[in-house]
Fold this sequence. Notes:
This protein has 547 residues and is mostly beta strands. 7% of the residues lie in helices and 43% in strands.
Amino acid sequence: xxxxxxxxxxxxxxxxxxxxxxAVDFKAKGYWSYSYxxxxxNKFANTKAGASNDDxxxxxxxxxxxxxxxxxxxxxxxxxxxxGDIYYGQASKKDLPTGGALGADGSIVELKRAYIDWLMxxxxxxxxxxxxxxxxxxxxxxxxxxxxxxxxxxxxxxPINDNVAVTAMWARLLNDNPLVADAKFTKxxxxxxxxxxxxxxxxxxxxxxxxxxxxxxxxxxxxxxxxAMGDGVARSPxxxxxxxxxxxxxxxxxxxxxxxxxxxxxxxxxxxxxxETYTWWGGLSAKLSKYxxxxxxxxxxxxxxxxxxxxxxxxxxxxxxxTKNLPANYxxxxxxxxxxxxxxxxxxxxxxxxxxxxxxxxxxxxxxxDNLKNGSERMxxxxxxxxxxxxxxxxxxxxxxxxxxxAYQPIGLWGVALQVTDVSFIKDxxxxxxxxxxxxxxxxxxxxxxxxxQYRLGLDVEGISPTGAIGSYLTTNDWAMEVxxxxxxxxYDNLKLVMETSYLYVDFDKDTWSYNAPxxxxxxxxxxxxxxxxxxxxxxxxxHYTF
Length: 547
């Protein structure tokens, strides 16, 4: 009887718990990716300046798992995990075990996204709240480099009618990441004492407004964005430029928002000026399919960042927090030195045949002039990977290491490409070919201007270059090309094999990237950090299982 009583009480307890829960449907999806790649000159480095390349062969894997909990058509939740990238033989990364070496057992499960979707009752007003993918439109190519990344925030959308909708977004990209107030650095550039408790010192917020429109054979999406940065958003000034200021997207942010002022290494946020900084963007993306099988896609973006800093008469702040007097003939570092504004436009035209889609793609992005005192003429960008090619840029399907070796963004460049995609003469096999030529839009005088500024300031000229990632900064005298040949074979409905083959060549003008100092010292590619080998070959085999 005692056992029966215990059983009945347990059942009652369980039923009571169940009665307070709600039924939901669970759906899981994701993918496994396995990549095996061979690349020459895989760091695109200047080995003569002491840099080194990694192993020519890389093997890696990545797993992404998305779990959806669906309560109704009006309410659902999503959690998205990522394991990897795991490189075979790698024991740890950033002091964390990755599980790729002998013995495995890594601590590498990452939370990529976590959000809920819900409709406001009795309306068609939809909200997505939490960590999510936030992206701005880009129709002619993919991967909007202004913003296409995971972030914590809220996205709200509402249809106006059958043709027009409105989407608004807010994301807090950084917070509680202030400058370090230690014994060496306790003040901002404008002389104000650092105060960790000031709420507006250490936050970075992005606001966006999109209006997607769909008509018969035409899609249009005008959009606008604003980035507000507090004066305390930065990494520790005691750290060198090479140190992380945030754990992810560091280089993309530095390349996209920094300007080269000639005061040292590429400036971070504390060098933007003493006050809050605001950046504005506006854009339009369009896709015309009315004349199918002809497709035309177009993108335009303009952005402007104002330095908003106080005039620094004859003084500037170095990366390590030291204050240095400028030469009397140099001039003050006023706010305009930290401005950055520019534009980007791209166009794609392709025609669909039964056997494939031949097309032409081109873009132009404004570049720097030869004046260091007026900031940068390259369009500002926050965080995103441009995905047109898979070696020079970030358009690979692989989980390996040899992508984005040239740049993350097409800023300060123009290019034109011939392409043919989805070529298929054999069942379950598709091929694509891209031939890309590009050239810089930055003034050819900029490298010498930078070197001259460094010399006049009494700083080390060696190793200083007007660029974030090595190789990404081309002048009007420099050019590059990339050829991609990709093949995709469907092994099963859920398993495909992709072979990526590419060749990248970058030609840096010898005279442009040299400088003869007044003291007689000559600087060449070692000074400019230009790669001594301009060629990159890559072949990769990528297996993708999706479910």
